[in-house]
Structure formats: structure tokens, C-alpha cells
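Quick board copy: two proteins, each given as sequence then C-alpha cells.
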Amino acid sequence: MKIVIFGLTISSSWGNGHATLWRGLCKHLIRAGHHVTFFERDVPYYAGARDLHELAGGRLVLFSRWQDIKTTARAELRDADAAIVTSYCPDGIDATDLVLDQDHALRVFYDLDTPVTLQALRAGEPVSYIGPRGLGEFDLVLSFTGGDRVRREFAERLGAADVVPFYGHVDPDVHRPGEPQPHYRAALSYLGTYAADRQDTLERLFVEAARRRPELRFLIGGAQYPQDFPWSNNIYFVRHLPPAEHPAFYASSRLTLNVTRRAMAEMGWCPSGRLFEAAACGVPILSDRWEGLEHFFIPGEEILLAEDTDDVLRAVDLNDAELHSLARRARERVLAQHSSAQRATELIALFSQTRSRPSPMRATLEA
């Protein structure tokens, strides 16, 4: 099967959660014998932190302007079996028009930012990657978030006819137990791009815990942190941590914290890719609460939950045996249910199922 993707980025993991997910998924699609072409606009902030330069076994097309590759993209679609447009694709509306106006490839929209999309729509704000045609002409809409509310709102607000949850995942070839490194040593770590909408939670579950335990070392890894972030003397910082460094980062922590974006937490049923990556690396995880989390991990057995600073300090004080047991169960769960290889298999199955169903839009175009 040939799959053409118009996405945000696969070439740079800096400041976004898309690249690592696409790398794992594309790698395992290619390993399974499928061909993948990924179109990505070449923007300065990703070019300056590019940590992937070619798509092994597939094709990565970097371009400066949509008009420069429109003809190439149309040619790629002529023999494609499926074409995917993603959320936050800088040329999402143009790519949508190109994909919807052809009658060969399966038309797919993948929203990797579902809660953000719905939050904007509810507020009456424009969504830069979804144009006036909405999602009604797509054969399949994939959502990073599950739950009946997503299907209902995508249908009502965007006309989507077939919405299926397609959750995050992890590539265990990249995210796996690593060797601890002294410069990443921490009693509690946190890996994530700065986001204002999770700052309150981060201050409650991380910053305040560091203040109350000045004898312990705390570590943050991520991009875009402002100068006025409330640092303390025992909070250390790594500005950019490419995926290759994640195993050492996590291996050097007794415990790592997951903080969910506000829109994702309010929506529920939306595990971040970081959650699966940390579990695959074998580090015990402490997370904020959100609806549906127990569908992915068993609280108290595979993951710890925290609502306030006291919960965090109790977790930090657990003995090594308790933490190691927790981490082992979480890793087993992730490898069994949430690997990139499994998602690749699921994606091809979804494509086949969608192809086998009558599509009014395809029938109209083919008539």
C-alpha cells in the first residue's frame, strides 16, 4: 500500500509531539512492506533543530512553498492507496483540497490535536488546518482522542461521517530502558514542551515539590520555557532533548511526572505520546488525573496518580522495589498494547475496512 502524508513535521522533534509519533508509525509501515511519502514544509524553527534528515525506505519531501510541490504532490497521489492530511499541517487547507479532489486514494484526516481543535471550534475561533469544506468529504477521520463526545462533535461541527480513535504509541526500538547518566540524575523528572495551560499543574506537582524538598534534585527537559519560569536552586533544565536521549533521561530518574495539556485533560481519553514513551523506557510514572486514564494504565499498579503536592511527595518517598514493580508492569502493558508496530497494523486494517464500505463521496466522484 502506498500512503501519502501531509503533516506538521517528521524531521524535527523540537517543540512538538508529532514527529516522534510519525517516525515510529512510518518506520513500521515501511517494515511491513508499505511505501510512505511525507510532505513537510521546511520552516526555520524545525530546520534549526532537525534530528531526522531522511525517511529510511520512504520519501521525505521538504518544501518552502505549497506552489513549489503542488505538481509533485498531485503526481504522488495518482498511484497512492491512502492520503492523510493532519492537524497543524501548515498547508492543511490546500492539501485537503488536493486530496479531496482526487478519486483514487482513500481520503483520511488525522487530528493529532483533537482537544485543541474542539476547544477552538466551541469558542467560534478559526482552525487553521481545517477549511470551509470541513471533514465531511473525508472517507475516514482519525482522532487522537476517544470517547463518544468526540465523534458527536466532529459530526455536528465538521460533518465527519466516520471518526475512529487512533491513539498515541511508542517505538520500543527508540524508547527502551537505558543507562543512567549523572547529568540527568533526578528524584523526579519532567519531559515536555512548555505550555501555559498546564503551568498551574506543573507548579503544583513539580515546582512546589522541589521547593519542599530542597535536598533532592529535580530535572525538566523541554523547549520554549520562559525566563520567568519559577525555577529554584534544585530544579535543573535541559533545553532540547532529542528522542535518542530519552532512555538515558528516564533511566536517571527515580520517578517521572506526566502533566496533561488542559484541553486534553478536560476532554479525557487522550493519552500523550510521552506517557507511552516513559513507560517503554522503564521509569515509574506519576501522572495527573483525567477521564479514561484507567483504560490505558491501572492506577496504583502500573501508574501513580497525583492531585496535589502531598501526593507527589508520597510517591517520591516510595522505596525502590515498589517503584521498580510499577515501572515493570507499565512497560509490559505498553509493549503489549501501544507499540508503533501495533498502530501500523491497526492503521492498515482501518484503511481496508473503510475501503470495503460504500463511500457516497467516492461514488459521486467516480460517477
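And the next:
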Amino acid sequence: MPFAVYVLGLAVFAQGTSEFMLSGLLSGIAGDLNVSLGAAGLLTSAFAVGMVAGAPLTALAGRTWPRRRALLFFLGVFVAAHVVGALTSSYGVLLATRVAGALANAGFWAVALVTALALAGPDRRARATAVVVGGVTVACVVGVPAGAALGELWGWRSAFWAVALVSVPAAVALVVALPGGRPDDAPGVSARSELRALARPRLLLTLLVMALVQGATFCTFSYLEPLVTRVTGFGAGWVPVVLALFGVGSFAGVTLAGRLADTRPDAVIGFGMTALAVGWAALALTAAHPVAALALVLLQGALAFGTGTTLITRVFHLAPDAPTMAGSFATAAFNVGAAAGPWLGGLALGAGLGFRAPVWVSALLMCLALAGAGVLSVSWRTRAARRPGRAGAAE
């Protein structure tokens, strides 16, 4: 795997820390800014909304820019948004910085995925995707728990400053490792042609399934702190440990999926989705038992990110003639789930259904994802039976 692909993973680590660290800072932000826990949770949704809106737009911009320049620009905007967020005392301004940082992160993701796949080659797409997404899982293992620990010691603002500082060496590494121009010499494809390719029903349904899987993941992940402190019975000092455990599972899941998904994507997706549905229900039922809760947090992290990574690779497989926009649509779908999950979890909490409620919502979302996957399977088999000579073609 080219070294530059790992550098992209390093940069994603800094940005992934920001995207997910609020799960360990919600109570501190809510208390400092005098807002509800649900309103604080919406900061995670705001970041995801910015990612959804920004991914297609910034991918279009990335079509004409040299990729190193685009990546450095987006990373610079991301750092500036976190500096402002660390300084503000206004919930509205903090919300705006989350959206701005997300727009920059979306641009980075859209360009980074295409760059990684171009550098790795067609036979190592899943592994390249796993390295980039692996930056997010390392953020869960190291960055997010460190942010929670900083928030506990010096307040939530210190976590924002830390993200800005960690992004600086990532920018330096990008300058050194990436070529200045585009990493491939393939002829350009028009934006209109790419968008037409992305309108295929099978691809759109795959994106919907991806959004549901990620919605289930972030619905619970965003409210892990109140779950483990108010249901499981852990003290606040255990929150970084639980978040790190989720991250360890995520890293293991991404690593394993990266090695299996190039050859057995259907098995990875089918097993992962089924196990996720069962696992979220089990966590809801056993959240009051510390050993069971810790084991399930680890397992669900592995299943969620392993399955999500394989679904991203599937999007590129289904849209080979949309090399730029496929990554942006996968990013958008990923973050539709990341926005909807915390919002739905907040609604369940606000309705007085208890701190287990977001986990039950996650189980329900996975049931919907399995139903969508079932429709995909039936449509694929029907199409293969009608036109067996084209069974392997992308739709």
C-alpha cells in the first residue's frame, strides 16, 4: 500500500476525532452553554448535516483542483472552524462552526477516498478504503477518549484546541507525501455523466442501507456517555475507557473487513448487518450489567465499522463510471445516518423513554436496513435470472 494512503488516514484521524468526540463532552457543553442534553447532541447532527450537504458540492470542486491543494485547503478551513469553536461562548456560533468544519471535512473525505483508490489500484480498493476509514477508528481508540479526558480535566474547549493542533502535523505530512498534481492520468468524466451513473436504483438503495446502518451506529454512540453513567453505573472517569473500547472494536472490524471485502463482500455485509441488529437489542437489554455492556460495546464497534467500510467499497463497485462523485455520495449517505441517528436518539430521550431508548432505536434502524438489503438481494437475483449473461455487471 503506498505510503500516501496512510498519510490520508492520519489526516482523517484528526478530523474523525472532531466528528465523534462530542459523545464524551455532551454534559460539559450542555452545562457550560445552558442548553439541554438533546440540544448538545444536535451538535453531532449539525456536523453530519454539513457533511451531507458538503460532500457532493466539494467533490465537484475537487474535480478541477490539484488534489494536494484541495486537501490542504479543506484541512485549513477545518482547523479555523475549531479555533473559533474553542473561543465562542454562544451555542449558535458553536453550531455554525460545527457545520463549517463539517463542510471542510466533507471536501477532504470526497477527495481523499478518490485519491486513495487511485493510488492503491483496482485490486486493493477495500484495503485502501479500510486504511482511510481506519483513521476514524484510531480516532475512536485514541482521539475521542483523549478528548473526553481533556474535557473532564480542563473543560470541553480544550478538546477543540487539541483537534486543531493535531491537524497541523497531518497537513505537513500531506505536503511531503502527496504529489502536487492529480495522482492519475485518466481522462476526465463529465459531472453530468457521473450523476447519471449514480441514479441507478440498486446503487440508491445501497446508499439508503448504508445510511440506516450508520444511523443505528451513531444513535447509540452519541449517547454512550449517559447510558454508561446512568444505566450501567460507571463513574464519569469510565467514559473514556468505554469510548476507547468502542474504538478498539472499530479498528479491528475495519482491519478485518479490509482483508475480506475485496473477495467476499456479500458475506461481510450480510453477517455484519444481522449481527448488528441482534447486538443492539442485546445491549439495550443488558446495559445495566457492566461486563455484558462492555463486551457488546467492543463487538458493536467492530461490526458497525467493518460493515460500513464494506458498504463504501460496494458503492464504488456499483458506480465504476462515477469515479469522483461515488465517494461523495457514499460520504453523504454515511453522514445522513450520522445526522439522523443522534436526532432520533434525542427524540427518544426527550419523550422520556429512558437512557436505553437510543439503543432500541438503533435496533429498529438495523431491522429497516435488513429489509432494504433483502430487497436488494431479491432484485439482484431476479435480474440475474432474466439476464444471466449480465449478472456481474454494475447497474
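Board note added afterward: Residues 108 and 194 are 19 Å apart (CA to CA).
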